[in-house]
Design brief:
- The chain is of the alpha/beta class.
- The chain has a domain of 211 residues.
- Helices cover 55% and strands 6% of the residues.
- The protein has 13 helices and 4 strands.
- It has a 4-stranded mixed beta sheet with strand order 1-2-4-3.
- A hairpin with a 2-residue loop joins strand 3 and strand 4.
- Helix 1 packs antiparallel against helix 2, helix 6 crosses helix 8 and helix 9 packs across helix 12.
- The structure holds zinc ion.
- Zinc ion binds next to helix 6 and helix 7.
Length: 311
């Protein structure tokens, strides 16, 4: 409809005589009026098409499990108000539509996904985290609870990354799966210091850093996956954390959970992530709510790294 109004205007404009007569001027004035009206119609249409983004858009649902074996997970999550805490953490996000977090049974498949403004984390996946959790606490002060809650939180935040990129039409350079991992690590670093450390180390544990063998044999097709390999995801998460606070995470390098070679560049990796989050996501964050629910203890990187500046 709009293109029909604009096209004839363009044709008349290009064929207009160079020396303008009174009639042409009147015609031009009429065209300006039509264009202005078209512009207004466009503004009105886009106002209807795109609802205004606002904070407090997170909803949640603890779906009753179909498999009785998952009832305990459902009850513990509900009792611990897990999804309510997640709702608080993400309440500063300004979104155009509500985003619903669900824990639900997935007919035996251990998975998590985002679809149609709903993030579903399957009880089957949470059961796997429980099964893989160690029976005792680990070195670096990582508790059994960290190794369950950390990956659960990471899973929700990773899916939130996908949701945010799509709902806010955030451009993603590189693989979206890696970007979603980075989004998750960044949000985890907005928790309190101790909690963030526990969640990150717990999530890294579940990403198979606990595999004791330094050499692994992997089928070649694993490298074709859209996600990075689990160990790579663990190293990247630890790198972002170390880059954010070298003191808090010093022991992961000292005890060689994160190789020194990678660690040396983590400050820059964290700055890159912070730069992207500040440019792309911060405009969609409600500052008042962020002050209430996010803690600020990591390095803040306000400008692009100095090495990119001209001398
Ligand atoms: Zn993903």
């Amino acid at each position: 409809m709009l293109s029909q109004m604009v096209r004839p205007t363009h044709q008349i404009g290009t064929s207009a005589p160079t020396k303008s007569s009174g009639a042409t001027r009147r015609k031009s004035a009429a065209l300006v009026a039509i264009l202005a009206a078209a512009g207004m119609a466009l503004t009105a249409a886009s106002a209807i098409a795109a609802p205004r983004s606002k904070p407090n858009q997170i909803r949640y649902e603890y779906v009753s499990p179909k498999n009785p074996a998952h009832q305990a997970i459902h009850d513990q999550m509900k009792q611990g108000r897990a999804l309510e805490h997640l709702q608080e953490l993400l309440s500063p996000l300004r979104l155009p539509y509500p985003l619903t977090f669900k824990v639900a049974g997935c007919d035996g498949v251990a998975n998590a996904f985002y679809d149609d403004e709903v993030i579903t984390v399957c009880y089957e996946l949470l059961a796997e985290f429980l099964k893989n959790a160690p029976n005792r606490d680990l070195p670096l002060g990582v508790t059994r609870a960290d190794t369950i809650l950390g990956p659960a939180l990471d899973t929700f935040l990773h899916e939130t990354g996908h949701a945010v990129f799509r709902m806010l039409q955030i451009p993603v350079l590189g693989r979206e799966e890696d970007a979603a991992d980075q989004f998750s690590a960044y949000i985890m670093l907005r928790l309190g210091k101790d909690e963030a450390r526990g969640m990150i180390l717990g999530a890294a544990y579940q990403y198979s850093l606990h595999v004791p063998e330094p050499q692994v044999a992997i089928p070649i097709e694993k490298f074709s996956d859209e996600h990075s390999l689990p160990a790579q995801r663990a190293f990247s998460m630890l790198c972002i954390a170390y880059g954010a606070d070298k003191k808090l995470f010093a022991d992961i390098v000292e005890k060689e959970f994160l190789p020194r070679k990678r660690a040396d560049g983590c400050e820059i990796e964290y700055e890159d992530l912070t730069f992207a989050m500040t440019k792309l996501i911060s405009p969609h964050i409600d500052k008042r709510l962020a002050k209430k629910f996010h803690e600020v203890w990591t390095r803040t990187v306000s400008a692009r790294r100095a090495r990119f500046n001209r001398p």
